[in-house]
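To whoever picks this up:

The parser on our side crashed when reading a file containing two proteins. I've narrowed it down to the boundary between the first structure block and the second sequence. Both blocks are reproduced below exactly, byte for byte. First block:
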Amino acid sequence: MGKRVRKVQRALVVALFALLAIGFGASPAQAHATLEGTDPPTGSIVDPAPTVVTMNFSERVTPVKGRIKVIAPDGANVVQGEPTTVNGGARVRIPLKSGLSDGTYLVSYRVISADGHPVSGGYTFSSRVPSALGAKASEVNSGTASASVDNGVRGVQSVSRYAAYAGLVLLAGPLVIVLGLWPRRLATAGPRRVAWTGWGLLAAGTLGVLVLQAPYADGGTLADVSVSGIGEAIDETVGRALLIRLALLVAVIPVLIRVLRPASKDGDAPGWAGPVDRVLVAVLGVALLITFPFAGHAGQSPAPIVSVPAITLHVGSMAVWLGGLVVLAFYLLPRAKYRELEVILPVWSRWAFWAVGALVFSGVIETFLEIGGFRGIDRLVNTTYGQLVLTKVIWLGAIMVVAANARAWINRRFGVPVAYAFAAEDPETPSKKADKAEKPAAATKTAAKKTKAKATPKKAKEPEPETSDFSASGRAADEVRRLRSRVAIEVALGAVVLALATALVQVAPARSADDAAAAAAALPYSAQVDLGPNVLQIDLPARIGRNELHLTLFDKNGLPVKVEEWSGSAELATANVSTDVVALPLTENHAVGQVELPIAGDWKFVFTARTSDIDQYSVEKTITIR
């Protein structure tokens, strides 16, 4: 019955991991770099025609090959050669063909931000005279938008990221427990399986993210995975971090084989590695952890010298804590003797306490950086990143409540000196225990073996069973089983925290979200809307104060439509403010006017064009003024 329950528990945990990986991990790609300015400015009318278009971003970006275009009114791509980057990679230069014709041009771009996430958008400018766009008006997108990502690529990469986190947890837990707390008499087959499973998940997850980085960045599908794409990904910081992680996983294989070796025939106990092994595990482990911040936001934060160590500590403490709980729940508590637990549980309780403290401390530091300091406290509520952080805090708090309950039980039940832990005397002879406590640990173990041999000479040669052997009362055994249930709950809740950590890696930090909004506000408003059977192009700075408005009318084929009279209005209902829009014609289909917008908000504009004595069309458009 006990084995069946354990199998059910394991199956539930595995299912929870899988469901959460799909549910939380598959979040859409978010824009992290922001477009801060363009030359020519978006929506502007320039003369003469430009020979180069430049875009200024908030951080270093990499142009996606073949995804940066400047579309002429006739639909042709007028980019000459490949775009280049200057100013540390934050400025993209797009060379254009000479002799550009008059009309409106669409700049469509897709770049990769420094943290590996794709960014896309589009805007327009006109050479001498506005005209209809040579591409779909829906592609015009002032500012920076979330780049479209194939659902298959997005889903597999999200699961890969989650697998990498879960693998790190399953690898770190057995190593910490086996090297520090594992009883000598127990075989390490179970923890070995968990550790190697963790190694496999971490390697597979890392490889999955690396292989899919190219189609994730350029909007391809799973069928677009290629060796050349992997090579392009390795040229970026994120790709290099993932490649280094894979190399470290290969390098750690001989160390794991030695540290996790089974008991040898000459009696060498499993898991009791020497100082060199422990140093190698520590060095390789820290190096492995450092790859996580460089494959995410921390490497590109405003203060990487703080955020990189913080994320390294955060991921490491999470892995030790949750991984140790997995080994404790499924291997130590069911197999260890009660007196062995008297040694193990108090020590683990202290380790877990410090791991949780490091987790919270580093998490607070990183969150503080990513929301932009004290001024960004409101971003915890107003941004997706902040909302995920708060959700993670709630789940982490639930784990800490369960953990505090378990820690209190351990302190009450096992508040005895460590020297008594393996003593063979009856618990009712405290005077003998006191004598034993003064002896060295080795002498204590020798005395315990001799005492046991005299008490049960016939059973001394029989191997110790690996099943639970609670020498105390049945009530104590029940209490340990309840403790195991608490630990299993911590593991299940930890799976949720891992899923939220996966989602946070793929969501723009709060500071970036605000930067994107500010950048979008600094760019003029430019759009094309249907006006009756025709198309109206609207260009407006969209700022508080006096704005120069441009209105241009075309038919569906892009030919100019003569306008007899322009009129319009603007209203901010929430402030009870309204004004007329007066536009004077410059050409037969192009008018310019001045409109005063004194207050920020979502203004409702109405534009009207009379094209004949009987044909008049109006369109309503809401434009945000900042």
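<<boundary where parser fails>>
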Amino acid sequence: MALDLHLKDPHLEQRLFRNRMLVAIVFVVVLLGVLVARFYNLQVVNYDDYRTQSDKNRIQVRPVPATRGLIYDRNGTLLADNRPSYTLAIVRERVRDMDGTLELIGDLVQLDDADVDKFHQRLQRRRPFEPVPLRYRLSEEEIARVSVNEFRLPGVSVEAELVRYYPLTQLFAHSVGYVGRISERELTAFTEEDVRRYRGTQSIGKVGLEKSYEDLLLGEVGYENVETNARGRVLRVLERHDPQPGSELTLHMDARLQQVATEALGAHRGSVVAIDVKTGGVLAFVSKPSFDPNLFVTGISYKDYSALRDSIDVPLFNRSVQGQYPPGSTLKPLMGLGGLAAGLIDRQTKVKDPGWYRLPNDTRLYRDWKRWGHGTRVDLTQALAESCDVYFYDLAHRWSIDGMHEVATRFGLGAKTGIDLPVERPGLFPSRDWKRGARGMPWFPGDNLNAVLGQGFVLATPLQLAVMTATIANRGTHYRPQVVMAVDGVEQPPEVLHHIEAKPEHWELIFEGMEAVVYGVRGTGKKAGAELGFRVAGKTGTAQVVGIAQGEEYDSEALKERHRDHALFVAFAPLEDPQIAVAVLVENGESGGAMAAPVAREVFHEWLSRPLEETAAILPGPVRLEKGGARG
């Protein structure tokens, strides 16, 4: 029987192949469909999103900080400049091993613990991909080391930036002030708008004009889109929006006058404030000792700050607006004018001065500084010239503290002057209500006698005394003191707060008395007018630092140097047409006539001996001058 064996079936094989081919084709078509769909999703549906993500890998938006506005004195001398500085910075997102990177950097440039600690603090408040400064003011040698090792330091760069520089160092530290790095407390207080405005900058005004005019000096930040490589190095700038530079400030202040006033104080601690009588512009503003503001710009070292903070002379303390001192006898012209206006005294009023004064029904003797007195009959002119305490004791006894308080406050005492500088203190001129509220005690007649001499509860800043003197000099026009004269060449008009009315003969009598202080036979301020070609009117003052028991004499030798009396002098000149008013305080100088008056004399000589055109300001368009350069 034959076997029917089918070892090969071509038809079956063809059908199987066709089926497999169809499955394969369907599978490939499905895969192609998925691929096309995915491609469509990537390239069409989500094109913008993925393009943006891609661009972020190579394109960065960098803030371009504005150039901080410059500050000039009235003659175009540069007081606050911007100078290039090289900073070592790190972008955190581009560094894999931060500790290793810092260790490597430490081998190339000098780093101390303070630099590293501050760097970690800045890391906490940075924006993504924002360079964080590690070291400021790199030397050329350090820059070269970092550049050679750039391939080992991904995310590390050396950036050039403009930092604040004060060419005259200590001379304007308390007026111009300084900028410093933005602190954690300041950053916490920032609004969203502040965060935007300060992008790209690490500095903010801390004190002085740098703080009070921060909004104008800062400028408006710009930005640029830059293309970078994988290491974060900038390859090209794709788009740029330029920043708006900060405003330029021109001051009433005069650098030469400031220098003269500073040198006139010598080694003494104290303050000198000079004011333009016609405008209220501050011509000189000295607080001594001072400090170098450049130390604070990029972060002061702990050692340097400790030296300033712990100094017994307190150089960081702005004596001109923060120092509250008993004004002493410098208030006597003001009290005399008030007594004239109140009808309590006149030109003919005379008081017997045996060297002491006694209130009715009181056994206490209120001593005159001159123990044997000033004569049998003392009038107002002599009382001012020789600083007779008894004359003003008698006036105070017949006057109410409320009347004295009203006069004092009209001339700017007991309240902030409103000067365009921060941290001003108000001083104090007491009243009945003040004592009852602050001390829980009634007002006593003896308090009047202390207040009229600028002692007891009375406190004033040197700036307040200068404003008071300028108001007397221009016969009652009370200007708000201003340091800034112009912004971007646009002059700021003087601001009159009010006008104090008094009879012409009363002003004349006060002027006569203040002139006699300097030129009278027994005047206490003769050194203020020595060898000048114009007349000066002034008033000396001495303020107690420690109390002296009744019946005891002041013994300078028995007191420590810092317990001795302060010396004060206020004055204006020329007498016929006052142009400048000056207040001088010499801490522990003891004698206003011997120590403070000569300082005022130097200020008057410097300012009023110049030709008229040299005292006029250069406006608009200040001229940049180097330190020590000629006047514009």
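After patching the parser it read the second block fine. The mean pLDDT is 87. The two ends are 135 Å apart (CA to CA).
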